[in-house]
Write a structure and sequence with these properties.
Elements: E1 7-9, E2 16-21, E3 24-33, E4 44-48, E5 62-65, E6 68-75, E7 81-85, E8 89-94, H1 100-110, E9 116-131, E10 134-150, H2 160-168, H3 173-184, H4 191-205, H5 218-238
């Protein structure tokens, strides 16, 4: 049985800010918005249903910086992370730890160098519709993984340099996007499709940081999250 991959989303207006609660700093924002179409995710757009997260009181969710498990800002299990829903979407408040990196993060957020949020999830149930404006995916039920302030919102559009690299390798990027859509819809792959995915994996690997020292590399800044997500999709399908 295949395990659904972790997906990440960032929609417009998913802001993050610093609050002062009687001298205690908090990081707050909306990690998801309801009933709003995303940008093009590779041949389809997406909406989040208001009931998608279920009973928030039963969830054990982390707040991470840039979706990085090495930088845990807060957690619902110990009460440092509070989740709630309102008319707009999924709201969160996080009390960061008294550590050097967290204090630095508060300064960065206060300057609005980082000013958006994102959420990570595993899909449990979704719905697909074909409309005059294209295919629409609605997330109906997900396992919420994390809520994160993010430096670069992880919209699944690939950087132009990567598109160029794929083209140089003889890979039809638009065709690859269509394969990703077919995977999401559970459609079978042909041998040619598998060959394209295997070749793409080798090309994409060259763009993935392989050393912690590369954490702030250009590949990470300008598309690492997208590339990793695409690579994971391909690897899972080939299992």
């Amino acid at each position: 049985m295949l395990i659904s991959r972790i997906e990440r989303r960032c929609y417009p207006m998913m802001e993050v800010r610093v609050l002062d609660d009687n001298g205690t700093p908090k990081i707050a924002g909306h990690a998801a918005v309801f009933n709003q179409l995303s940008e093009d995710l590779g041949g389809f757009r997406e909406m989040v249903d208001p009931g998608v997260f279920g009973d928030l009181s039963q969830l054990d969710v982390r707040s991470l910086y840039n979706h990085d498990e090495n930088y845990v800002i807060a957690r619902t299990k110990n009460g440092t992370l509070k989740l709630s829903t309102d008319d707009a979407g999924l709201a969160y408040e996080a009390v960061p730890p008294d550590t050097t990196w967290a204090r630095d993060l508060l300064v960065t957020l206060g300057r609005e160098d980082v000013d958006q949020s994102s959420f990570g999830f595993r899909t449990l149930r979704d719905k697909w519709e074909t409309t005059p404006d294209g295919d629409i995916r609605t997330l109906l039920s997900v396992e919420l993984w994390d809520v994160s302030p993010v430096t670069f919102p992880a919209y699944p559009q690939t950087d132009s340099q990567v598109r160029s690299a794929l083209k140089e390798a003889g890979i039809d990027y638009d065709g690859l996007e269509r394969l990703m859509l077919r995977h999401l819809r559970g459609l079978p792959f042909t041998d040619t499709d598998h060959d394209m995915i295997r070749t793409s994996i080798e090309v994409l690997k060259s763009y993935l940081p392989t050393d912690d020292r590369d954490r702030d590399s250009e590949a990470r800044k300008r598309g690492f999250a997208t590339l990793r997500r695409r690579l994971e999709i391909a690897e899972i399908e080939l299992i």
